[in-house]
Specification:
The chain is α/β, with parallel strands linked by helices. Helices cover about 25% and strands about 30% of the residues.
Length: about 350
C-alpha cells in the first residue's frame, strides 16, 4: 500500500508530518483534542465539531471499525481527523481507513498526539490546517494563519435541520430547537415516549408556541454561542411561558438570552471523563464537548448554580425556578461515554412537566 503524505500546520509556525488516510485534500479550522478511549465515530459525527479538526489523544482509534448505527449525524461533521495510529484490521465492520477513502474524508496518523495536546494545554487551542497528499509544512502553516477564528464563523445554519419535522410519541409534547443536535438526544427523548416537534435554529417563538409544547429543549451545537442570534432572540420571547431545558450550546444561549455572558475556554472540555459536582454534593462523570462556557457571575438574580466542574470550577449547569429553566453544559445523553446523568436529567425533565 502506497503511503500518502500528510502534514498538519499550526498558526504559531509549527508543523508536523505524518501519514495521510482518506483522500488528497486540505482543510483549515480550529484544532481541538478529545480524550475519549472509545466513541471515535460518535465524536467525528457530532455536529458540535463542525468547523474543527478533531485530534484523539488515545493512542489508537478504529479497533472496532465503523458502526453507522452509532453515528450522531448521517455524515462526519469534523473537518479532519488526527490520530497517532489507526487500526488496519478492526474486529468488525469497515476500517476507519476504508470509510475515509470511500467518503472523501481527510485524516492523518503517525502523529504524537499527546505531545500536541500538551502544547495546546499550555498555549490554548490554535488554528490549524491539515493537508493530505503533500508534506509542504510552510504551505500548511500559511493555510492555518488564514483560517478564520471560531468566533468569526457561523456554523449552526450548516448543521441545523432545514425544515421542522416530527418524531411521534404518546407522551408529553417537546419542542426541540435543533442547533446541531446529536441523534442520541432525540433517542433519549423518544424512548421516554416524548412527542417531538423539531425546529431549525431560526424558528420564531410563535411557531413553537403554536404546537402547544409541554416543554422546550435547546440542543447542542457548534461555534461561538454569541453567533446564535436567532435562537437567543427567540428565547427572550419564550422564557417564563413554557418550561425550557438547555444542553451544551443550549445552556449558553439561555444565559445570553437572560443577559448573562459567555467566554472562550483555553482548550475546552472534550471527552468522556469530566467530573461534575451536583448541588447536593454528588459527583457524576460526564461526556462533554464545548469550547465556551457561561460566566457564572454574569447570571441575573434568580439563577442558581446546579453543577460545577470538579477540575476547573467552571459552570456546568444552572437553573431558574421562577422561569422554569433547567440547563446543563455536559451531555446527559452521552453516547459515547458514561450515561450517569441520562436518567438524572431526562427523567427529571418528564417529571417536571408531568
Amino acid at each position: 500500500m502506497e503511503i500518502m503524505k500528510a502534514v498538519l500546520g499550526l498558526e504559531d509556525g509549527q508543523f508536523v508530518a505524518g501519514e495521510g488516510f482518506g483522500v488528497d485534500g486540505e482543510c483549515s479550522g480550529e484544532l481541538v483534542f478529545n480524550t475519549q478511549m472509545t466513541g471515535y465515530m460518535e465524536s467525528l459525527t457530532d455536529p458540535s465539531y463542525f468547523g474543527q479538526i478533531l485530534m484523539f489523544t488515545f493512542p489508537q482509534i478504529g479497533n472496532y471499525g465503523v458502526d453507522r448505527q452509532n453515528f450522531q449525524n448521517p455524515d462526519v461533521c469534523a473537518l479532519g481527523c488526527i490520530a497517532k495510529e489507526i487500526c488496519e484490521k478492526p474486529s468488525a465492520g469497515p476500517s476507519v481507513r476504508t470509510f475515509f477513502e470511500e467518503n472523501g474524508l481527510l485524516g492523518m496518523s503517525g502523529v504524537d498526539t499527546r505531545a500536541l495536546t500538551i502544547e495546546m494545554r499550555v498555549h490554548g487551542t490554535m488554528r490549524a490546517a491539515l493537508v493530505t497528499g503533500s508534506n509542504d509544512g510552510e504551505y500548511a502553516v500559511q493555510l492555518a494563519r488564514r483560517a478564520p477564528s471560531i468566533s468569526d464563523i457561523v456554523p449552526i445554519p450548516e448543521v441545523s435541520c432545514k425544515e421542522p419535522y416530527r418524531v411521534f410519541g404518546s407522551g408529553k409534547r417537546i419542542a426541540v430547537i435543533d442547533l446541531g443536535i446529536k441523534q442520541n438526544m432525540i433517542t433519549s427523548l423518544a424512548k421516554r415516549n416524548g412527542d417531538l416537534y423539531v425546529f431549525p435554529y431560526n424558528v420564531r417563538a410563535d411557531q413553537i408556541l403554536a404546537c402547544r409544547p409541554d416543554a422546550i429543549l435547546i440542543s447542542n451545537g457548534p461555534g461561538d454561542p454569541k453567533q446564535a442570534t436567532d435562537v437567543i432572540r427567540c428565547l427572550k420571547d419564550l422564557l417564563g411561558h413554557v418550561p425550557v431545558f438547555g444542553i451544551c450550546m443550549g445552556i449558553q444561549v439561555c444565559a445570553l438570552a437572560l443577559g448573562g455572558d459567555t467566554y472562550k475556554l483555553k482548550f475546552g472540555h472534550r471527552g468522556a471523563n469530566q467530573p461534575v459536582r451536583f448541588k447536593d454534593g454528588r459527583i457524576f462523570i460526564t461526556t462533554q464537548n464545548h469550547g465556551f462556557a457561561v460566566d457564572a457571575h454574569s447570571l441575573p438574580e434568580g439563577c442558581g448554580v446546579s453543577y460545577t466542574n470538579v477540575n476547573d470550577g467552571t459552570l456546568e449547569g444552572f437553573e431558574n425556578k421562577d422561569l422554569d429553566l433547567t440547563t446543563v453544559q455536559f451531555h446527559p445523553e452521552a453516547h459515547g461515554g458514561p450515561r450517569d446523568t441520562e436518567a438524572h436529567f431526562f427523567d427529571a425533565l418528564f417529571r417536571r412537566i408531568a
